[in-house]
Amino acid sequence: MAALLVLFVHGWSVTNTDTYGGLPARLKAEAARNGGPKLDVQHLYLGQYISFRDEVRLPDISRGFEAALDKVLAAAGAGRRFVCITHSTGGPVIRDWFDRTYVQTKRLAECPMSHLIMLAPANFGSALAQLGKSRLAAIKSWFNGVEPGQGVLDWLELGSPESCELNLRWIDDYPRLKLLESTTPLFQFVLSGDAIDRKLYDFVNPYTGEIGSDGVVRLAAANLNATHIVLEQPALIEGEALPSARKRLRSLTKVSSKRSARTAFKIVPGKAHSGEAMGIMRGVRNDEATDATVDAILRCLGTADAAGYARLCTEFDSENSAHQDVANRLEVEHVPVLPDREYIHDPHAMVIFRLLDSRGIGAPDVKVLLTAGPNHDPNQLPENFLADRQFNKRSGNLSFFLNHATLTGCAAIPGPKPGEIARKALVPRPPYGLRIVPRDGDHYVEYWTAELEADVANLLPLIAPNETTIIDIRMNRIVREGVYRMTQQLSPRSFKDAELGGAL
Length: 504
Hints:
By secondary structure, this protein is an alpha/beta fold.
């Protein structure tokens, strides 16, 4: 295999190339050692793009990458392929570039990128983005001499229309492209930590210590193994009596379920999102000490065909399971003077609900409730099942962050000392389901209550640990006949309180 060019792409709001830490130099050193990867160390490039100006959007950056890449490839010689190693927002930037430049233009065979290795990528966004757009963040950015970068933060906010568009194409359309079987295959990898650097914890911003994340990006939001589910109300029958229609439309049915192509995903032990001590990229040092990030990257670089990629996917899956085994979930923080603090790292899952009506319009006037137990009661859900919930104002999408271990049940967690129990066993409360509840009262345009009464055997496998599931809920937009009437009565009369009438 010919020596590979290496390009690095950083994350959001970076203003200095020191963000790459010792990783570039370390890879140069690894390439020089016997048995190291065949890297063209004369052509190792550090990206430096602008994300801290409000007018810059993510597609603008991917367009800039294409222009800069042309110059790199021209200097390296015709026919050269490159490895791209990204951090955080750099992952979505390169995915957007690849999608626009080669997928949508149907030029896959021309793509010069052979390996895309994403470190802690915000593929489905970051819970921090919403806070990054706040007034407090704007003031902090002003003192640092930069802007918050609202254009990029719009993409990064959980449930944004832009991220959903790219990720739905990834889930629904990309499997047919068979990227690994191309004459110029593209191997994609996601490497993300789940450790929290307590020294970087921000008490004003609890997301920096969120379990199931690296302090910035959730494992589920980084992982490209994802599912898209479509649920739908039955169609409205013209002339049907309202009581009958309300009852019939109450049941949601599953229309489709699609799964993304299998993608290599590795939880890198002991690594946080950033920081010189634990950062998955910046924390790498150029020495001979074993480093989990470097080890994982070298394994990714060793992939040369579809069979090797499948083997590495399986190896990573096995290692992830061992890492998140019940016996390994307890973290104990030793605090001087104060009692030790215990944290339990349960696997979590993210679910993005997209509420759409039969006209393709968002349906913000409804609530999404999760239910449990034989009576499908929201009050029967296990304690602490919901870690977080965010609403995206631009798209109307809801993002739920769920403790998967709580929903499925979990054995007791051993304590730090023999015989101690840090947490008792968790007992699940199936069946789990959904209930869509409209705003109170009758209206000229409205939605009606709908439910999905699932059980643990068919709902939970669609909501996998460390993954994101996008659930589209298609509601009937009910327009009542009272919204428009004709009259032959010529004398003035008020129709301010006109009867609603039946459904059109």
